[in-house]
Amino acid sequence: MIRGYPCHPSVLPGDTLGLQIASDTPVWFRIWFYRQGESLELKARTEAKLAHARPFGSPDRDWNWPLYEYPIPHDWISGAYIAWFVPVDEDTSGATAPNYPEAAALFVVKNRGANVKILYKLPLLTYHAYNEIGDPRGSFYTGGYRKLTLHRPGGGVGGWPWYHYFPDVYDRSSLRQTFWHWDARFIGWLERKGFAVDYCTDLDIHENLGNFLAAYRLLLSVGHDEYWSEAMRRNVEKFVANGGNVAFLSGNTCWWRVQFAEGNAAFVCDKTKLAGDAQKRDQWFGVDPENRLTGVSHRNGEAQWWGKRESLGYRMQHADHWIFDGTGLRNNDVFGADHALVGYECDGASISDRPDERGFAVPRHDDATPENFVILGTAKLGPKWAQDPVDFPGSRTATMGIYANHGIVFTAATTDWPRVIAEGEPHTEKITENVLHRLGSGDAEHPAMQAWKQLCPKSIKPSLIQLLQEERKSCIYRLDGVGPCGAAVIAKRCRAAESQVEQAIYEKILPCLPVSTLALHGVVDEPGTEFRWFFLEDADGEVFSYSLKEHGRLAARWLGEMHVSAARVLEVSRLPDRGPQYYLDHLRSFRRKIQGNLSDPVLNSEDIDVLESMLGQADFLESRWVRVVELCRRYPRTLVHCDFASKNLRVRSSTSGLNLVAFDWEMAGYGIPAPDIAEWSDRGFPKRIGQRLANSELVNYWEVVRGSWSYLDLPAIEQLAELGSVFRSVLAMSWETESLAISWESGSIGRGWWPLLMDELRGYQTDLAVALQHLGFAR
Q1: Distance from first CA to last CA of the chain, Å, rounded?
Q2: Which of 270, 546, 562, 594 has the fewest CB atoms within 10 Å of its CB?
Q3: What is the DSSP letter of 647?
C-alpha cells in the first residue's frame, strides 16, 4: 500500500506542493490530483514515480518519508484537493476516482487574491487527534499520546480513524473524523448551490500570515471542530471584534486547547485530570470558556457515540428572526428531528430556569456565554446521552443561537448539521442559506486596503488584490488600480521593529541618491499589533537576469553609483553595522547550533561529515579573521543592500533607456560593498566552479567607482568580490542552520528536505573554500 502526507497542509497557486510518500514495498505509481467540488474533479496526473519502502513511524514523531514535489498550476482555484497514489499497473484512466481510500492525502490550495468573501476552515487538528495510524498505533484517544505529528498520513484522508470502532449508522459511506464524512458532503452542497468559497486549514488560522483572515466576511467551521490553539482562538476573536462573521455549523467546537510544536509540524494536548476534579488540564472551559467565542459549550450538551440515538431536532423560537426567513417555521415548531439533526455530539448554553416574557428560553449567563446571545432553538437531551465532564450540572440542552460583537456569530451546535443539509432537509438548508447570504455578503475590506485608505481616504476599490509573498515575518500584496493614475501599489506588512531600517532608507537615503528607485507612498501602523504597512510603487518591468549581459552592465553601474553617492550621505552611517563583526557573529551562531546538535541520533554519517567540515571551516576562518578585518579596512563604507539578488531587482524601459530598481532593503546596513558585488558577479550565488573567471561586470563597476575611489584598482575590486563571497557564504550557512533550529530542538529532522539542505550546505562550503583560496588563505 502506498501512503503519503503533505509537508505543509496548504499551498498557494504557483507554489510547489511537497508530498512525502512511501510504500510497504517499492512500487511505481502516479499521483492523481482531484478537487472536491460538487463532486470530485480530476485536475492532473503525474508521470510515473518510484515509491520507496519505508516503515511506519510513531504517531508522535515526524515520519520523514521521501519527498516528491509538484508545482501547483497558477490556474488552480482555491479548494480542498486530494492527491491519490495509484500504482502504475492498476492505473485506469477511465476511473472517476481511484478506489484506494488509504492511498491518499488531503491538502488545501489557498487563494492569492481577495475576491471571495467566505472562508472555509478544514479541521486539520481534529482529523489528526483521532488518527491512529502509526507503529505502535495511537491517537489522543488510544495509546496514551500527548503529542501527535502532522507529518504522517491521515490528515483528513488516508489514515486510521479511531472511530472505525463506532460507525455512524446515519451515514455508513465514510468514517467520522475524516474529510469525507462531513466536509466533502457540505462542500458539494456549497458548490451545487453556487456559493463562492475559499479554503484554509487550522494551521492557516493559527498563523494568520499577513492577517489574511481580515480579507473575508464569513468564516465557516463545519462538522467536528474540536481542537483549537490559543492563537486560533485569539485570531478568530479579533476577526469578530473587527466586524468579521463566523458560522459554527459544527458541534463539540473548541473543546480542547492545543499547543503547536516542532515548527508547527506537531501539536500537544494535555488530557491529564486536575487534582480532585473531573476537568482535564487542556479543556478550554477551565482556561477560557469556549462559549465566549461560540456562545455554547459541550459541557452543556452531550453525545451518543454509537448506534441509533434519540431522534431530536430543534424546537425553534424567535420565528421573526432573519435566520428563519423563508422557512415557514413558527414558534415552537421542531425541525430536523426526522433526520436526527442533534448529535452525534452537540453543544449547549447554560439555560435559565426562568424564560422571558414571551416564554422563550434565555441563557443563565453564569458560564461566559455573551450577554446578547439569543437562543434560536433548543433540544432537551435524554438520559442516554453521555455527559462530559461526568455529572457536570449543566443544562443538558443542545442550543442553536446567535450573538453580535461587532461581527455576528451563529452556532448550530451539532456535528451532524452538514450531513442533514446534504440529505436535503429543507429547513436546515434554508437556515444555512440565510446565514451564508446574510453574513457572507457586504464589503469586507482587505487589511491592506484598510491601511491604504488611511493614506488615501478617497481611494477607489482595487480591481484585484494579489498575494505575492507569504512568510512569517512579512506578507506582500499587489493592489491593482489604487495608485496614482490607476497604477498598482505594493503593500508590504512586516513587523514594525524590523522595518525601521527599510523605512529610513526609503525616506532619508534613497531620495538623496542619483539612482532609479521606487517611490514610497507611505507607512501605516496596524492598530493593536506589532505590524505596520509599507506602501510602495509597483516594481513592474522585466525580471532581472544574470544571464543577460545588458542586465549585468546595468546592475554594475547602478551599484557603483549607489555605493559612491551613499558614502557621502550622513544618514547612511546611522544604519546597522554590516562590517566584519556582523558576519563573525553569524559565523559563531551557526557554529554553536551545529556543535550543540552533532549528537542528534537522526544524523547519518554523511550528515555528520558535512557538519563537522563546516565546523572546521568556521574554526579556520575565525583564526584568520584579523586578516579579514585588515582587508576590509582597505575599502570605504557605504550603504549595502546585502540581498542584491535577481528576485529583488527589476529592469524598466523608459525614454532614456533601461533603468534598474532594487527593493527589499530589510537586510541593508552600513559596511563595505563586498556582499552586493558578490551577488551579481560570479562570486557567491549561484554556485561557481573553482577557477577564476574574467568578469566584465566587475570592470564596469570599477569604471564607475574609480573616479571617487581612485586608490582602488581592478585587482582590489576583485578582492572585494571575494570578500563578498566569504560574507555571503557565512550568511547562507547561518540562515540554513537557523531554519534547522526548531527541528533539532524537537528531535525531528525531516528526511524529505534534509538531503536537499545538505546539498545546499556543501555548495556554500565550496563557495567559501574557493573565495578563501583566492584571498590567499591557505589551510
Answers
A1: 52
A2: 270
A3: G
Cβ atoms of residues 385 and 396 within 8 Å: yes
Cell, residue 590: 551557526
Torsion angles phi and psi, residue 521, rounded to 5 = -75, -30
385, amino acid identity: W
**Alpha-carbon distance values, 621 to 629, 676, 692, 720, 760 (Å):** 12, 21, 21, 17, 19
pLDDT tens digits for range 562-611: 999 999 999 999 999 999 999 999 999 999 988 888 877 767 888 889 89
Q: What percent of the chain has pLDDT over 70?
A: 93
The C-alpha cell that represents 683 in the structure block = 562570486
> Does 291 or 767 have the greater pLDDT score?
291
651 close to 541: Cβ distance less than 8 angstroms: yes
Taking CB atoms within 8 Å and a gap of at least 24, the contacts of 713-717 are 716/634, 716/635, 717/677
Write out the three cell numbers for 270.
Answer: 494535555
- Alpha-carbon distance 376 to 11, whole Å? 38
Burial class (CB in 10 A: 0-12, 13-18, 19+), 349: buried
Q: What is the pTM of this model?
A: 0.83
Strands 79-87 and 104-109: antiparallel
Contact 726, 768 (CB under 8 A): yes
What stretches of 406-481 adopt beta strand conformation (E)?
407-411, 464-470, 474-480
CA 546, CA 555: separation in Å to the nearest integer?
A: 9
DSSP H or E run through 286: helix 284-287
Confidence of residue 305 (pLDDT cuts 50, 70, 90): confident
Helix (H, G, I), strand (E, B) or coil at 760: helix
Is residue 74 within 8 Å of residue 112, measured between CB atoms? no
Amino acid letter, residue 762: R
- Determine the residue type at 687: K
Q: Count CB atoms within 10 A of the CB of residue 216.
A: 24
Distance of alpha carbon 36 from alpha carbon 258, whole angstroms? 28
